[in-house]
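request received
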Amino acid sequence: MTARAEVVPGGAPGRSLGRDAWRRLRHNRAAFVAGIVLVVLLLACIFVPMLAPYAYDRQDLALGATPPSAAHWMGTDFHGRDLFARVFFGGRVSFAVGFIATGVALVIGVTWGAVAGYFGGRVDAVMMRIVDILFTFPFLILVILLKVFFANSRSPLYHAFQATLGLFVKDAKDPSYLPLFQIFFVFGALGLVSWLTMARIVRGQVIALREQPFIEAARAIGVRPLAIVFRHLVPNAAGPIIVYTALTVPQIMLTEAFLSFLGLGTEEPLSSWGLLVAGGAETMALYPWLLVFPSVMLAVTLLCLNFLGDGLRDALDPRARKA
Amino acid sequence: MTASPRARRTLAGLALALRLALVKLVAIVPTLLIVATLLFFLLRLAPGGPFDRERAAPPEVMRALEHKYHLDESLFAQYGRWLTDLLFHGDLGPCFKYPHRTVNEIIGATLPVSMHLGLMALLVALAIGIPLGVVGAARQNRWQDTLSMAAALVGLSVPRFVLAPLLVLAFSLGLYWLPVARWESWRHMILPVVCAALPTAAYVARLTRAGLIEILGADFIRTARAKGLSERRILFVHALRGGLLPVVSYLGPGFSGLLVGSLVVEKIFNIPGMGRYFVEAALSSDYALLTGVTLVYGALLMVSNAAVDVAYALLDPRVRGT
Amino acid sequence: MTRHTTARRARHGWAAICAVGVLGPLGALPACGRDEPGYFGTVGRGGKDAATFYLNNGDEPEYLDPGLVSDTASSALVRELFDGLVLAHPDDQHPVQGVAERYDTSDDNLLYRFHLRADARWTDGEPVTAHDFVYAWQRVLTPATGARNATLLYALTNGKLFHQGKILRLGEAVRPRDGQGTARAELAAGTFVRVYATSPAKLRASRPLADAPEAGASVSVGDDKDGAPVRVLGLGPPLRCNGEGDYWFRLEAGGREGWAPGCALVEDAAHAEVALVSVAVVPTYAPRRPVPAEAAPVAGLVPRAVLVADPSAVGVRAVDDRTLEVELERPTPHFLELCTLPTLSPVPRAVVERFTARGESDRWFRPESIVSNGPYALESWKFRYEISMVRNPHHPDFERLRMHRLVFLQVNDVQACLNLYRTGEIDYIGSNVSLPSAYMDSLAKQGDFSRFVWLGTYWYELNVKAPPVDDVRVRRALGLALDRQLIVDNVTRAGQLPATHYVPDVTGAGYSEVGEAERTAGQARFASPEAAFDPARARALLAEAGYRVVEADGGYRAEGFPPLELLYNTQEGHQKIALAVQDMWKRHLGVSVQLRNEEWKIFLKDVRDGHFQVARFGWVADYNHPQTFLDNFLSYSNNNWTRWKSGAFDELLEKAAATVDRLDAARLYREAEAVAVADMPRLPVYFYTKSTLVKPYVRGFYPNAMNVHPLRYVWLDDKWRAGGPSTPAFPPDELPAPGRFAP
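response:
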């Protein structure tokens, strides 16, 4: 019943929905501007660290924390590291966390929800009971346990990661890949705990759709069940999925910040906005710039993502046309 | 006893809602048992034991400690002991980190504080969020809407761990109006409650606005408008009831979310609540304590969800109909 | 942008940016309100009771049971609740009267006799007697008690053997049998025996069965978990194990026969059938005790079932209610200092036994049932929030205490603690709080800030079994490339002293005097240029070890040097130092260092399993003596994670510990330390300091190297602005010079 609001008719399926939605999105200036800001920020995070005069982890201990200056536009932190470089490098990590974790949640949630919704009956009952059980786990405990078990160099997952990495690079055994693994791990863990709502939403959609004539027709001509689920049902539930996805990204980015505050998220010397904000909050009375710049970046990004999500909701929700 | 059709409908709805809630409540026990069992075994597989400290104790001492807490028995014997204690004595076991307290005592001492904080924060969140949302919906796309929703989005984008020190800096250290920390008088409660409530209020505001806008577009509201009812009457009498449904369904997870989310607030304001054990107990391998707080959290979540279902069924004509 | 209504929503974003922009600089507000210029925060107490002292104690205590205390949060509280035989002077920590008003000692420092004061009382009015101490000490040494600090009482005769369950009493007369089953001379009931091994037993996992015994060998065995069950077949030649006399045993395990030292065997208490014993040496409390033979002749095998534990084998006894006699295993110059520690405080026997009988041994010390003998008595205990104490009406100092009530808050968030201090909620931030390094510079300017040397050393453990740090040249090179001055000046920022060795220079028991003498003689150990920051020499050493350091794109690169992993536990302070070290090794040696940060439990496990190359660690002194820093370098110490083993070091340290003259002993300690420094199994980084905040009106509070601050001497001076020296609330009762121990 929590998915009630999302159980809406899929609207007219096919091209017209997408084109319609795009038209409406473009006319929603707030969402459109937010989208542009996001793209600019994203590009900046990708390219600025490549061009910046300082590396994100280059220390100058003798310099220490200094306010913004001509040499360091956003000042430096306690270790004399350039905050400008760290903020943009941190943006990469934050965006990656947001997108990858959401991706994980999307894949698991959509598959889980669609399968449960389509097959119904006992399958549905068991699958949804599992979701209920996971819902009662405080997600923090899950993340901690996963981290404790697997985010170390002895975990079997790390060996799997090394093996996969070995396909691309020669020195996969180099421990300098460990932080990469640990970040991937935070993504994975966050994704693992955020797919539950997605599964419920998709299940609701699929249940509403599965009795529709076009599905009956597909079933009648002998299309395999999984094909029906993924070719016909999921695309028709795309609206709510996209909306929820867009709204999950900022949620995940905030959660990453929360975990960083608890010391369970991204780890130094890497940076992420969450980590920078958490660090800045501790010394805000002494070095306010360490809080202000990353906070502004994080807040602007979250705002833009929310605007975009709202815009998408308006664009993809056919009822919005009435307004 | 003459019951009007309307009252009868309400009664039928109530009965249905109660049945629904009952089913949910009955399902709580097995669900919790599965959760606890999973947790029990998962925790014991994690590296490190509860008695590891920076300085290694002599092996004789480690053996004595493990024996005292039956950690030298087989996993299944430990599980059996734990389950028997829980089911027949309601005993969640000993706390390893603080041997002078049992898990029951710890939860008994800290849960009320967290509930107190959580409930007050929830009330404040509703008191701020719903009016903001109503303003937004009633003045859709006008400056009042823009302002209230901007406030809501800021509330959603500023993490509590930034908000809390900022509030302390401004109101306690700067203006000396309020205490900086601890949980004593009502003055001590203002900052933590506000800090816990604001992000939730922002969420409630958005939910209220969205729900109201949806309802305001519904046919029965058009009919009401056509009948010439005043906008105010339409908004507060007809629309609000349905428009608040998303908020109601959010209350269950929202309340338990506040319990865990209060972890940051509890830490920063030194409030003796339960939130901190979710992290601490997991990190110090305090098996029984972690299982205990998870069970309490799960039970609260499920009970509040069941309660929300009842409320929902009472408010929503569509659920009643089915 | 503002022309269209649809565009208005875009302004949400601007509003948010403005909001953050306004809130952000708020943080830059200078301290205002009622803050006192020149001090951190207010100096008013807001009308709080003038005889109540408020402080933060950091974390929740684990135990308020003196015998079981091992964490600093508990120990600070127990020091107020319980009085030991002697107390530490608040200023320079020399022993002053506690429950004992005077003591006698023998010439060889092996015997102590304490005379207890007549007016020492428990909170229930009962007198504190010598029997209470005997009970408390024996309880600590009883393995089932689970006292982590039991090792402190290993100084007593048979203390260690008793704690390990290796000294037991015969419950009945038995005739031991030899390996062939032939009976030998009968041992009377009540005879104390030294148990070498029981059978069947379990062999420690680290020790495989050897093919043949090595006569006269000296081995060390770790404390790892017990492994395979073995059956004892016979006794072989003697050996020394972990510095003690022991024997080789012929064993049978899984169908295979072989040899193992006795110390590698763990008693399998549930299954042991027989025990191999000799007659044990028990305390006689007689001066000039004859040096016992290295090992008494083995008596033979006796049934395990007739052996019972009897703590009277340990060297402590009550002659009468007011006289306590102690016999030590070896001269222990710091024994009086040990007596000031919580572990050696008395416990109320009746209460403890009542609760233990109920299976609630960890609950007797709650406010409703605790009985204690210190100046303050537990009043209330709000879990993880606040503990309060009031004066103990039966304590001899009752009238002299100027603080009538102590309130310990439990605030483990350092920001919250600083805020509470700043607003005058607490008078002292407490001895368990570490100020964040970022705030150090601004706090150090305040009048209520104090900083003092604290006996502790921050170091990195190097796993000498893990390449590349298995090479001493690499270890030394890593040390030479550490710019420790830069670390203490710019990272830790608390005036710590760069350390090139392990024992802080100010350590007592003659250590600092010998160091000073060395320096004036121009032969200072550990201060040679060898040890200072010297990147060029470090590169040369690395090259010597086979890793040529070449210049590459503006920096260095150590050719062929495998990436190094630096492990630390998740904590901001450690991380900051690790980041700096990583940068230094990269910059000066061209070594790429990977930081690995783990949660405490996993960190400990990895360090103990040897799953590391370089790991953050440190040591804080239990008592003011070089022994506490150096004994964890012993090859058999269960706190030596480096896997470094040096026979020369073990021998020197054992010799130092057995030396009566403190200066001679100190010279031996420094010699042993030099052996360790030469091999560099640990990289010393700095010697600790303690930085703290105490309100200026607090008197009777002294900085000291042990970071122990007894609150009974504290008082609040409302005329503090007038200045004047800080005197204790009342002068501690000095101990008279020790008398001669005569039987």
